[in-house]
Each structure stands twice: as C-alpha cells, then as structure tokens.
Amino acid sequence: MSKTLPFTLLSFSWTVLASWPTCIVPITSTPYSYEVPSWLSLNYSCTGSPQVWEARPSRGKGIGVFATRPLDPGDIILAELPVIIIEPPLIRDGVAYPLTSVEPLLQAAFDTLSEEHKSAVLSLHAHLTPEEASDTETRLLPIFRSNAYLVGSLMSEFGLFPKGARINHSCRPNSNQVWIDKTGKRVVRAIRRIEEGEEISATYLPLLQSRKERQRALSQYGFKCTCSACVLGKAEQEASDKRRNDIRLAFHDFEPHLSLSVPQSVADKRKAQMNVEASMQLVKLLEEEELSDYLAPAYRIVALSFARIERWDQATIWAHKSYNLRLAENEDAEGTLEMAALTSQFISSWNEELYNKSKQQG
Q: What are the SET domain coordinates in residue numbering (predicted)?
C-alpha cells in the first residue's frame, strides 16, 4: 500500500483479516493402521479438507502426526477438549506440592472416563524413572507428567489432550498450541507452510536457548532431539546458538522502549532510528532460525519502533502483520485486541499525515 494514495483510500478490511479456516464438528474416518488406538479416527476437519492430519509411526519417535494436505500459516490442525483436567493443590509457603499430591485427583478423574478414553490415555508415551519402570501400577502419573499442559483462564490447571500429545517436539516447530478459554479447547495451528506428508511438530520448551541447554531440558522426556536445528555441524551450530542468544537479548533490550512516545532530542531520535534497524534485524534472525512462533511479538516491536519515528506507513503495515498472526491464534486474546487497536491508531495517523501533505501540495 503506497503512502502516495489519497488519504481517503487508506483502510484495512477487518472482514478479510478474520477469514481464517474454521474447524467444524468431528467426523469419523477410517481406522488407522499400525495398531494406533481407535480414538485417533476422530479428527477435526477444516474448510477445504475432511481431514488434515493422521497419526502414524515417525522414525525414531514412536507415533507422530503428519499433514494429509498442504497447510498454510493459521490453518487449524485440530481443536481438542481435555479428557482430564486437574486443579492441583495450591502452593504453600512458596513451595509447590509434590506431583504425588496430584495422583489421587488424577486417578479419580481417570476412573470416570469411558473405556475408549482410558485406552487413549494409557496408550500415550511416558518417560519412566527406574522406580516407575519396575512398578506397572504407577504408569498413569508418568503419562500425565509427560503429556499435560497448563490450561484455564489463569493457566493454573493441568489438562491432558491425547490427540495433541501425539505431536512430537522440534526446536524449529511448524505448529503452535494455544488454549482458548471461551471454548475450553486447545487449538493446534500451523505457523508456517506445512507440506502434505510433512510431520507436524510443536515445542516442549522455550526455544531461545543453546542446543546444549535444550537437550538438557528435553532429557526429562527421555529423548534426544534430532530436529534440523540439533543436527547442524559445529560451525553452523555455533551460529545458530548465537542467533538464538541474540534474539533472546533483543527481546529483553527492547522492553523499555516499547512505547508510543516520540523522542524529542537529537540523540534520542538517533537512538530511535537505530532501534528501527535493530527491530528489523530481530525479524531477520527469527526467519533465519525458523522460529515462526516468535514473529508476532517481533512484528509488534517493529511497529512500535516505526511509530516512535512517526513512520506511520511502516508502523501500520507491521502492526497489521502482528495482528494477523495474533488473530490466527485467538481473536479474543489481549494481544490480538491490542494489535487491532494499534493498527487502527496508526492508520489514523497515516491518514492525517497524508491529508496534511495533500493540503500543503494543494
């Protein structure tokens, strides 16, 4: 969109922005082979395809989830209700209760499940300690420990999602998983283009760490990651680790500058211009590392950086890009509403700027 257009033409179509694929009711498909439990035959379909994923063996990873058609960023892969949801005991004296305190709650919830759901839960992988491996009756707690997610409006509960739990880890994931409080579901969406037959991956940990730190954190799940970010040669791995560290530091360093105040002094204006360039470099680093899940906050940083130097055209475009990504995750989330408001605000400033220029030229 050119800033030379008449100011009356500058507006974005919010209807178009909201037209992401929508999942409909579960449909029954044919049972999967490879002795995958029958519950996997229930899939959520999205506009354009009756089935977007399938579970089948993944080399070296047990069962994995694979795309049955090409998926674009924002496409819903599945939307799943938790089969078990647990509110753990409150923290006492600043210390969390041991996980064993959850076991009676977990067992009580498990006992209410249908046989199909019980089978689905017990079929999930769990990393067992030596003590747990020798005691077959303790399998439920390790499964829950290995596969549960934080859920709820305050993210203070634990939910178990058997379908989503089949998605394997990658340090360069192609999907993310977001809890939608309004529907009580955990929604998995593509965050970059996923080709037909490609394995769908998520992350089990924060990704702005070195390979060594990530592998150490993943040891609690009992596997060593072999994704594309973890099998690099020494020189490439060092470069990757540096990029991730630079990204982490950039997010931290930008935090004090994320305001709409326009700098007044020459020195502050120069620094604001440097921040614009640094924000663009942040986006470039994320793209090089294929960390798509961090792009929405990075686009926000770029938008605010341009706004501080009153480049309303670029501020609008980057705020709109961040809004697009936020909208795909959760239309009601605070971040989505913020980016919608900022985009509207920047459009108004851009229109006012063009109007003033047209008056001066007239």
A: 38-205
Beta bridge partners of residue 223, listed in sequence order: none
Query: Is the CB of residue 107 less than 8 Å from the CB of residue 180?
Result: no
Rounded to whole angstroms, the Cα distance separating 361 from 252 reads: 43
Q: How far apart are CA 345 and CA 304, in angstroms?
A: 11
Cβ–Cβ < 8 Å for 181, 85: no
Q: Locate tokens 């041991």: which residue?
A: 98
Whether the CB-CB separation of 80 and 185 falls below 8 Å is answered with yes
What is the spatial distance between Cα 122 and Cα 138, in angstroms, rounded to a whole number? 11
Q: Which domains does the chain have, with CATH numbers?
A: 7-18+232-361 (1.25.40), 23-220 (2.170.270.10)
Model confidence pLDDT, tens digit, residues 299-348: 999 999 999 999 999 999 999 999 999 999 999 999 999 999 999 999 99
Which amino acid is located at 34 in the chain? Y
**CA nearest neighbour of 202 among 213, 216, 186:** 186
What type of residue sits at position 257? H
Phi, psi for 128 (deg, rounded to 5)? -105, 140
Structural contact between residues 314 and 306, judged by C-beta atoms closer than 8 angstroms: yes
- More confidently predicted of 156 and 206: 206
Percent over 90 (pLDDT), the chain:
67
- Please say whether the dihedral angle defined by the alpha carbons of residues 182, 185, 191 and 192, taken in this order, is positive or negative: negative
**Residue 163 to residues 81, 121, 153, 201, 278: CA-CA distances in angstroms?**
10, 10, 22, 13, 40
The CA distance from 177 to 186, in Å, is 6
Q: Are 97 and 91 in contact (CB under 8 A)?
A: yes
Amino acid occupying residue 297: P
Structure tokens at 138: 């303790």
Q: What is the pLDDT of residue 4?
A: 30
Strand (E) or helix (H) holding 86 = strand 84-86
Against a cut of 0.90, is the pTM above it?
no
Question: What's the token pair of residue 165?
Answer: 């739990």
* 175 residue type, one letter: S
